[in-house]
Amino acid sequence: MNVTHIEHIGIAVRSLADAVPFFERLLGTPCYATEEVADQKVKTAFFRVGQTKVELLESTAPDGPIGKFLEKRGEGVHHIAFAVGNVGEALAALGGLGVALLDSRPRRGAEGLQIGFLHPKSTHGVLTELCGKE
Ligand code: CMX
After folding, report:
1. What separation in angstroms does the CA of 33 have from each of 44, 74, 83, 111?
2. Mean pLDDT over all residues of the chain?
């Protein structure tokens, strides 16, 4: 598996309406895209920071992953996403090493990328996403 860079850092927020203007000022760059990912029960807002992005995540339902995270832990860093060439191959390799996979095969995430999550219990407490075009 070859990680090329940190693709994005996901931050759970209660309200995009509040958080987007703050991050625009903090990062000195406008939000360049917003998108609802219905199956994840989130609305997202993206900022470019060099080769990496910041993804703000607002929940659309209390029983979704961000809704549960906000309820349990409040706002904050939710996950780190690493860019890999081929998500399916990376998931297969990590599964073979005994890493607990939340996605056994890639699925479509925000920005049309292929994604797959690793369970934080298997990754030293960091919810980890793999992202790629394949
Ligand atoms: N980072 C680190 N640990 C986390 C975590 C996170 N973001 N979310 C949950 N956990 C921990 C919990 O604290 C809990 O630990 P303890 O057992 O010590 O209390 C453990 O993981 C299980 O958590 P849970 O609340 O019982 O389980 P959930 O039902 O909330 O599921 C998780 C947690 C990670 C399996 C689930 O959120 C998931 O499948 N996430 C992947 C998909 C996702 O996060 N989508 C949103 C982003 C989509 C996008 O970027 O487009």
Report:
1. 8, 24, 19, 9
2. 96
